[in-house]
Amino acid sequence: MRKRTIVVGLCVLAAFICYIDRVNISVAIIPMQEAFGWSDTTKGFVLSSFFIGYVLFQIPSGWLTNRFGGRILLGCAIVVWSLMTLLTPPAAAYSFTALIAVRILMGVGEAGAFPGAYGLFGQWVPPKERSRAIAALLSGLPLGTLFALAATGPIVTAFGWPSVFYIFGASGFVFAIAWFALVSETPDTHPTIKQREREEIGPITRSEQAPEIPWRQIFSNSAVWALIVNHFCSNWTFYVLLAWLPSYFSDALNVNLTAAGLLSVAPWVTMFLMTNIAARIADGMISRGVSVTLVRKRMQLTGLLGAAMFLLAAPTVTSAPAAVAIICGALGMLAFTWSGFAPNHLDIAPRYAGFLLGVTNTAGSVPGVIGITVTGFLLETTGSYTGTFVLAAAICSIGAVVWLLFGSAEEQAFAKSEQRPRTDPLGPERASHG
């Protein structure tokens, strides 16, 4: 097997484990709330505290990747978030403050997951394979969510809510051992890679000094702000449903814990499938000559406005099958935005796409703090999920308007400058193979 295939596969597995550990509490929180007597507002704060660390460490994680490399950053991130997962039950038993601190530190650990993976891809994956590698990496999100939702309920029912954190946390440590044993930072430092694969990877994947970041031009650009706003608006619905969906099925539809977890699986399967269908539709339009700007606008508007329509219909349903169908529709439509705003970083600023992703993902992570907490407050004050769904639909609509007016896929002026020639530490002989 090719060494770069192993590296990509382990990064995908890291993303999978990352989302298992992130999502399991959305099911375990139901018996935790009962055990500790939390209000819905307190419950929302527990769920959202993870995102405090996650938001604050997005950009620092990108800097650390450049400073120490993706292997070290992602490996250490796995250890940190797995340790915090293990410490969740004893921290909850000790004090509420200790639990919040552990959840924040878990967010700090998981903030390094995707910057670390992207850093490794820049070293290991040739340009012609990068789209497939990134698509595989992002597949870890819904797959990890699905596994966590399906497995957490039965585990909690059989062994109690603390067991799920011990089982998944310990699994992360086992994976970390394999990670450090099998992953090298670059092809040049891998002890057993064959020369043919080194030549296939080529010098073009080697890192070069990053260009100076034009801060003022970036933050005064309307297309950048459209991207920032839409990352926020698209993620609002995603994160609210990620955290509250099992509780919605349990509270609003009166199903048991295991059923709530299982019912929550279908919407994420739908999102996984529609993500790949939407990507094929978008690439098909571009290959037929449709402008990239028009494609990005169509996909983003379809995703946000389609999701808004389903969210507005959600309060009218009264049966579990109808509720599952509505939420499947909302997440299925939202999947179109992953072919709208998500690739737009590379469209408008390919030279600064990594930095731009850190900026927009910081904004995109804020709903994990605000949206989840506001949901708990709305539930406590109104006694229903109607306000939650209406608010999410309104935010989707705001994002759609901003994207329609200011979104663009044209390379922006601040990103247009001469590219410096790449250099390779192995010299001209290696470079000739590229």
Describe the structure in your own words.
The structure is a single chain. The chain has 434 residues and is mainly alpha-helical. Helix content is 78%, strand content 0%. The longest helix is centred in the first third of the chain and has 34 residues. The two termini are 21 Å apart.
Question: What is this entry, summarized?
Answer:
The protein is mainly α and 434 residues long. It has helices spanning 3-36, 40-56, 58-68, 70-94, 96-110, 113-124, 130-159, 161-182, 195-201, 215-219, 222-253, 257-263, 265-287, 292-313, 320-334, 344-348, 353-382, 386-406, 428-431.
**Tally of individual helices:** 19
CA-CA gap between termini: 21 Å
Return the structural class: mainly alpha
Low-confidence stretches: 204-209, 418-434
User: What share of the residues lie within helices?
Assistant: over 70%
Write out key terms for the chains shown:
434 residues; 0% strand; mainly alpha; 78% helix
Topology summary:
Elements: H1 3-36, H2 40-56, H3 58-68, H4 70-94, H5 96-110, H6 113-124, H7 130-159, H8 161-182, H9 195-201, H10 215-219, H11 222-253, H12 257-263, H13 265-287, H14 292-313, H15 320-334, H16 344-348, H17 353-382, H18 386-406, H19 428-431
Helix pairs in contact: 1-2, 1-6, 1-7, 1-8, 1-11, 2-5, 2-17, 3-4, 4-5, 4-6, 4-8, 7-8, 7-12, 7-13, 11-12, 11-15, 11-17, 11-18, 13-14, 13-15, 14-15, 14-18
